[in-house]
């Protein structure tokens, strides 16, 4: 574990918090799809274990995280302010492939975090892409601020919103993309498990070309505690922390 200072804090709506952290080694090594384990920089025993968060961005000596406040651990982190210190381990795990001819990025809610990092890397490499974001509630549209400077962003909300598409992100994709448009693309997705399971229906025959970033409860982040096991296609198990968190859809049973 290393220590990182909070340089900037920003809230996105009621439930999401973004930290920009100063830690040069992690910032220089992080790749889209990887994650870090984080806990407050002071001694705390409840909760004892760090929390895993995908990297939102990384450059120079700083990197950013965005997390949703959903329990005691993330609530405790949300109270930290600029100048406070957190303990961080990472970057960890296997990230996204970066050699797509064309990328279709599908995010459900907080699943946009690793895909924002991927989109910015695609921009640097000149790889064309389209970004689709779906949220459940109007208030979560605050996340669109993270996408303001990206091209070709489309969004949906499951609550009716003026000027927006009402439905899930996969409903939106079905309306916007014909088979000819996604046939030669690589598809990247992160979001609720139910959304990821539906990808085989929306993109039939594309399991080898769909990469999914999975979320899981984990205690260590590097394969020791075995707390993040998921079924492996063909038998056995993967560990999300060390074998993933990015997998081809053909590799896992969701």
TrEMBL record:
GO terms for molecular function: 2 iron, 2 sulfur cluster binding; flavin adenine dinucleotide binding; metal ion binding; oxidoreductase activity. It holds the Pfam family DHODB_Fe-S_bind. Binds 1 [2Fe-2S] cluster per subunit. [2Fe-2S] cluster binds at residues 220, 225, 228, 241. Belongs to the PyrK family. It comes from Candidatus Caldatribacterium californiense. FAD binds at residues 73-74. Residues 1-98 form the FAD-binding FR-type domain. InterPro entries: Cyt_c3_hydrogenase_gsu, Dihydroorotate_DH_ele_sf, Dihydroorotate_DH_Fe-S-bd, FAD-bd_FR_type, FNR_nucleotide-bd, PyrK_electron_transfer, Riboflavin_synthase-like_b-brl. Keywords: 2Fe-2S, Electron transport, FAD, Flavoprotein, Iron, Iron-sulfur, Metal-binding, Transport. Its cofactor is [2Fe-2S] cluster; FAD. It comes from the Bacteria. This is Dihydroorotate dehydrogenase electron transfer subunit. GO terms for biological process: pyrimidine nucleotide biosynthetic process.
């Amino acid at each position: 574990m290393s220590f990182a200072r909070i340089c900037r804090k920003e809230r996105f709506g009621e439930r999401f918090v973004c930290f920009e952290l100063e830690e040069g080694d992690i910032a220089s090594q992080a790749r889209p799809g990887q994650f870090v384990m984080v806990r407050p920089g002071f001694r705390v025993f409840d909760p004892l274990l760090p929390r895993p968060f995908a990297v939102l961005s990384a450059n120079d000596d700083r990197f950013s995280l965005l997390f949703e406040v959903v329990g005691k651990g993330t609530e405790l982190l949300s109270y930290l302010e600029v100048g406070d210190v957190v303990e961080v381990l990472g970057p960890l795990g296997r990230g996204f492939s970066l050699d797509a001819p064309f990328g279709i990025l599908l995010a459900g809610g907080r699943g946009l975090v690793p895909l924002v990092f991927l989109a910015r890397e695609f921009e640097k490499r000149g790889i064309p892409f389209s970004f689709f974001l779906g949220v459940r509630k109007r208030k979560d549209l605050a996340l669109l601020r993270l996408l303001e400077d990206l091209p070709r962003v489309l969004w949906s909300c499951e609550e009716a919103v003026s000027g927006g598409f009402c439905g899930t992100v996969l409903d939106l994709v079905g309306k916007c993309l014909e088979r000819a448009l996604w046939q030669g693309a690589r598809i990247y997705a992160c979001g609720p498990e139910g959304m990821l399971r539906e990808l085989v229906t929306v993109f039939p025959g594309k399991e080898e070309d769909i990469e999914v970033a999975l979320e899981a409860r984990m205690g260590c982040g590097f394969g020791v505690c075995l707390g993040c096991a998921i079924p492996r296609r063909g038998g056995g198990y993967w560990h999300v922390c060390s074998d993933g968190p990015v997998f081809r859809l053909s590799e896992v049973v969701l």
